[in-house]
Batch of 3 targets.
Target 1
Amino acid sequence: MARADVGDDVFGDDPTVRNLEEAAADRLGKEAGLFFPTGTQSNLVALMAHCERGDEYLVGQLAHCYRWEAGGAAVLGSIQPQPIAHRPDGTLDLAAIEAEIKPDDPHHARTRLLALENTLGGRVLSLDYVREACAVAERHGLARHLDGARLFNASVALGQDIALLAQPFDSVSLCLSKGLGAPLGSVLVGDPAFIVKARRLRKMVGGGMRQVGVVAAAGLYALENNVERLAEDHALARKLAEGIGAFSGLEVTAPDTNIVFVDIDTSIAAPLAAHLAGAGIGITSSAGGRRQRWVTHMDVDAQSVGAALAAIDAFFAKGV
């Protein structure tokens, strides 16, 4: 990062940013890319580039760009979301997708886009499913966007090239700061005309950056060095899940990738969280603390997993 060759990215002349955008687009089999500070902004701009004011996008009820991005598409893009319930494996029922596509009628928002996410809460969408869902959308003239924040995790888990997983989509947002380990940044990829429109929208929503090659360099390093090692995170997540599942009152969902969900008896949720925090173990939780999310990544090794399991064991040993 300290040695990065930089320029002014607002004018498109930061060479390190351009190298990153080209590298990401090439890896995903697309023609062009655009660097963003965050995945939330990348998804927002993608939705705004595909849809106009008063249009609608179809999206999963638990998808990040619907549930976890502060309603940005509706607030800033005047784009209506049409959420669809997920099945247990994270997919959307194809018939449900088709049923929510509105007729060309002035009473309805115009359905313009299908947005999927891979992985979803660590669950991998298969290539066959993605192709089928995108075929439904294409048959009705809808564009297809993928929130691929953890698409490399899906690629490694499936043993399939990431370009194959990206191929059915018109645009893909790829995060560099998840398992790949960069300090920040996402790249949105698509065809050149789409990226031209996205660049204007990025400026509009405050994403224009100057000598940002210093962080783009970290993204390039991540793409070149930290993809294959994602398999280590997945293996450690399985080890962590097996260990946690051995404790009474903790119900574990077997992970596809590097995210382990743990459902906890309400009587111990708060004290266990406090105990783990005291042991220096950071986790996130939802549902009033009753569901924890444990994530393995490049800063977590086998010794760390062992220490986390030992901390849980110590909690139960106290008879709490």
Note: The first strand starts at residue 32 and ends at 36.
Target 2
Amino acid sequence: MEILSRARRLRTSEAVRELARETRISKTSLVYPMFVREGSGIKEEIPSLANQYHYSPDTICEGVKELVDAGVTKILLFGIPAHKDEIGSSAWQEDGAVQKAIGEIKKNFPQVYCITDVCMCEYTSHGHCGVLCECTTVDNDKTLELLCKTALSHVRAGADMVAPSDMMDGRVLAIRRALDAEGYTHIPIMAYSAKYASAFYGPFRDAAGSAPSFGDRRSYQMDIHNRKEALKEIDSDVAEGADIVMVKPALSYLDIIFQASQRTNLPLAAYSVSGEYAMIEAAASAGLIDRERIIGETAVSIFRAGADILITYHAKEIADLIEKGKIG
């Protein structure tokens, strides 16, 4: 039999497989989430997230140094306050956990790019992502004011980028106008554009102490059944001035990542969330999977679907796999 086209010719050695590789990953495309808690002397492992830690502003540089040594220089900061109230007022305090942590990081590691999560759920006593109406649902427009105050406080502290994750309508435009009005026209916004009301957030809510005290977030986060709505949300954020758009979670939404990559020319981030991380760690601890290969394969799948940026708790491990030439 005469066979002219043989796909296996480009699989015969690692050298030719690298040459023909369609999806390429770089350490520069990785972002590592970090939790900073108000207080001092804190470095405590998070029970629901093995090998992930709560830091205080005075210890966070220990974790940052490990990242930098691994070649990862971009972080996403989440704050956990000592005091919570109905409106989440600790979110925009000048001496808040995130604000102080940024100062420490910039002083010791000026090359590290600090992105801050802008949301109210970690700061409110009820755990929802904004101000509550009398009917106990989130008041969209009143919440926008607080998001703007929070974003401004982060940028004044030295944040390089802000990332609103609340899913309020119009928040990208509101934050863009607030930043521009104070002369921060150079600060980018990474919008959590297609953020689904997912069960994969469980370990994060334990880590951040942000589980709702009643109800759920389905009235503002997206219905898991919807695809076209995600594209509508992305279009809206692009029109409002977002510089980067995001799909969250990642693995169960690879179809959305792909369609988003076809929809916009903006950089596309995907967030491999706490539940995805926890499942891999649990299965690896039970000896059911090859942890290293699974971490690499899931990362490649997200980039192959169309992501340009990967936010992941496995950033250090992925960087190591790239360094070893096992992925990339």
Note: The CA atoms of residues 196 and 278 lie 18 Å apart.
Target 3
Amino acid sequence: MKNTLSYLLAGGLALLAAGAAQAEKRTLVISAYPIAQPLFAKHVYEPFKARCGCDIVVETGNNADRIAKLEAHRASPVIDLVLLSDFGMLEASNKGLIAPLDYAKLKNYGQLYNFAKNPIGGNFAVGYTIYSVGLVYRSDKISGIKSWQDLWRSDLKGRISLPDVSTTQGPLMLQMADLAWGGKSDDYATGMQKITAIKNNVVTFSKNSAQLSSLFAQDEIWAAPVARFTWSQLLKTGMPLKWSIPAEGQAAGMNVMGIVSQSKNADLAYQLIDFWLSKEVQTALAMDLVDSPVNQQVVLPKDKAEFNTYGAEQIRSLKFVKPELILKQRSNWIAQWNKAISK
């Protein structure tokens, strides 16, 4: 009888201990873009869960919707770590939704390109991926493209696509048009005027990469600004396409990470950020063509480097639009666009 009681007591204590351990298991909630989530799970979430003994919940959506959710739960956050464009993160931090980062807690911080360090100011973020926007053209139809000004050439009339200003790449195109044509003001007035002047030469002002692939595949366009992360998809069209880094450089965009103000899991968020920025994780994501690396120690083979924003030539060519400039001018640009181009 005594042995039976001891067995039952031991079993009960084991169950209580197991229950307590389960109750102590923590959950880190991430707000991210919906693209490539299965690959992020493979290379980031699952390996990190094995390390931390925690759970990860991922919520997805666009910049605006996810920032709105942060605002709605300002007093009691339901998100711990948020991934946004650099200008999206600046907007969120301006609203007091993001906590300043202590970069000393990130052992991989020193391995990053300088532009990924404190990219929006105020220590509110760290870059985790970049992308370039260069010019892609049909090599069987035109001799080549060496400048952003070439999009205004007469032989490309009715054969180009440009990004709509409301898209992430819209302000980047506006910047490069302004730069190519000698603009001097931060409202990119020269670039806007130049694009307006050739609006009838544009087959469409595209809103996504799938649309661009279709236009090239159907022989409707011969040249267009293209984000590097879609280059591999464009080549699948089977068309003779070439990538050009124009003389003025390439437009560049960056996505960043930040910890939500008053997050109760900030310690786990720091650990995941550092893991994400490691050479190993950055390499894995680049090899699967998910994200171009910001860790300078990443080394890619030629067949993978071609489809990433990677390497000395690519990095030297990058022209970033200041996130504060996008926030300042975005509504003005959209209003001008709707009046002059979309009408």
Note: Residues 209 and 230 are 7 Å apart (CA to CA).
